[in-house]
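Q: Could you fold this chain for me?
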Amino acid sequence: MRQSRRGRKPKVDYDSVFEILSKKAKHILDSNGVLSPYSSSIWNTISDELKRKISAESLYINVLQDRHSWKTKLLNILGITIHQSPPEIEEDVLESSTNLDIKSDSDFDGNLMTFKFDIPYIEYIKMKPVGVRYGKTDKPFTVLKQGIWTNIINDYFLKNYKLPCTFIYKRCRVAKDVYRSKHYLEFKGRCKDCLSEMVGWADKEPLEGFPLSLTVVTKDTRDKFAEHISKRQLNGSKRFDVGKNLSTSCASNWQRNEVSSMDFGDKLPPNIYSKQVLRKCKQEYNDYILGINEKCPIKSLIELKHGKFSGSIHTISADKFFIHYWTPYQLVVYKH
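A: Sure. Below is the predicted structure, expressed as structure tokens.
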């Protein structure tokens, strides 16, 4: 009988990983059995001993979720008995880190990756933090400019790493006091197709003229293009900017310019929009420039009937919908 094939061999043997974890048990768990926070240097230390074959983020999440019973075994080594309770997490942004769904050995082997990239200062200025108020108590918050920051961060992330994921960004929080906060800004999101979660942050505010350095932790899905079919929405200020660009060009030229840095055979990322979307975007921009606010097609036809097409449009009906349209020249030809 033919045996089923097993999954690929992990980069590091689990027993070898636990051997190192057991030596650091007192640094990983305190006397009450509380796990060292995500930001603790112990995770980087262990990752270095493993020659970075497993990232610090993956180590933290694997122990946190008690994969391979590592946390249970460490508690037994230290002689600690505790009632199972929700894990303590250092910062709100790490709530999404604990939700990173690690279901297979491949995730442990490095599918959960850390990505680093820069956003030019001229782009950062466009989404520079502003103050807003939310909730019944009208509580003040500092956030990146809505309708702008998601597209800028997403475009530069995909430009650098070409992931197929269509990320929907949930929120972004900017620290009021950078000296008391671990990160200057934090954000999170989730892919519409594979549901991979991502967390991202910037450690400090950029100096004038210098880029904003971002770090993103999510699954590496660059080998799973077939599972991703969604496109990111063209919205916010980007929709206006693209429409302005298209007002003197066409959809095909826009697409060609956007993929100019790609190599032959590369898959199109989710922020390369279809011609239909681009043409609609161009129409909306032209309507804005011309001051056309009327969106009802029936009323638009009535305006045309009493305007430049006076004498050609004769009857307009909404129910059932039909239009009687002919030019005086056509009528002469028909009669003769």
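A (continued): The CA atoms of residues 315 and 324 lie 5 Å apart.
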